[in-house]
Design a protein that fits this description.
Elements lengths: L4 E2 L4 H4 L2 H8 L7 H18 L6 E6 L16 E8 L2 H11 L9 H11 L5 H11 E6 L16 E7 L2 H4 L3 H13 L1 E13 L3 E4 L2 E4 L5 H10 L2 E10 L7 E2 L2 E9 L4
Parallel strand pairs: 1-8, 2-3, 2-5, 3-4, 5-6
Antiparallel strand pairs: 6-11, 7-8, 7-10, 9-11
Helix pairs in contact: 3-5
Length: 263
């Protein structure tokens, strides 16, 4: 249906992971705006999981989508990574890469970029192998539910990571605030919440289909994290200086927060 804005349950039938990957993760062969956002996130993730000192036993990635770029630095800092997504097709796409199956998306440009950030561009194959070993579980998730990973049982995490997912999953601000509290509930006391959010997002394109985006302000994001019992340690903002066709937003906000002992 022309002009339809897809959201919620529509993801299970209408979201095409291959179209999404080609649009937003083509790296240097893609659009300038999408490449700059990807590099911004990769740089911040590298800083967070290396010199930023965020690490531990377990990281849970919420709303992984069909992507692995967000885990390339994290796999050096955690013993175990649990990935999760709302749709089966995204989980299948993830599994294809993890198992090196035919047709898996080629993440080698992003892997090389991260290895260069780490100072050794020769270890790309080693990096991919390490990530494949570190991802131990692939789960369904729904952040609008009281227990986002149910019926799976997971131990308290040292870090919960979510990039460019919450503003797509939450239909309104109240649901967003409740979802942030649920993510924080997955953390150990003292654990870290790491997020990237497209600010004032209106919609984004996947192929010819337009999907919903919840318009959030930087201040709203920070307040939701604080109200959930976390101290914001770092908040990096990058304004959108490009004319976006694929994703209408006004910038990216990268947040690192720590859960308090009583949250």
């Amino acid at each position: 249906m022309e002009g339809k804005l897809y959201a919620g349950e529509d993801y299970k039938k209408e979201f095409d992971p291959q179209d999404y990957l080609k649009t937003y993760y083509a790296f240097d062969s893609g659009t300038v705006a999408e490449n700059e956002i990807l590099k911004f996130n990769l740089k911040n993730l590298f800083q967070t999981f290396s010199s930023g000192g965020v690490g531990g036993d377990i990281l849970i990635d919420i709303g992984s989508g069909p992507t692995i770029y967000q885990l390339l630095s994290a796999c050096e800092a955690f013993r175990e990574i649990i990935v999760s997504d709302y749709t089966e097709q995204n989980l299948w796409e993830l599994e294809k890469w993890l198992k090196k199956e035919p047709g898996a998306y080629d993440w080698s440009p992003a892997v090389q970029y991260v290895c260069e950030l780490e100072g050794d561009r020769s270890r790309c194959q080693e990096k991919e192998a390490r990530l494949r070993r570190t991802v131990t579980r692939i789960l369904k998730c729904d952040v609008t539910q009281p227990h986002p990973l149910a019926p799976a049982q997971v131990p308290p995490a040292d870090c919960v990571l979510t990039l460019l997912a919450m503003e797509c999953a939450c239909p309104d601000a109240d649901t967003y605030w409740a979802a942030i509290r649920r993510l924080v509930s997955l953390l150990k006391p003292g654990g870290h919440l790491v997020m990237a959010i497209a600010l004032r997002c209106q919609s984004y394109m996947v192929g010819a289909k337009k999907f919903f985006g919840l318009p959030l302000e930087k201040e709203t994001v920070e307040k939701a994290v604080q109200e959930a019992g976390c101290q914001v340690l770092r908040c990096e903002y990058r304004p959108n200086s490009y004319s976006h066709f694929y994703c209408i937003n006004e910038g990216i906000c990268f947040v690192v927060a720590r859960k308090g002992s009583r949250a």
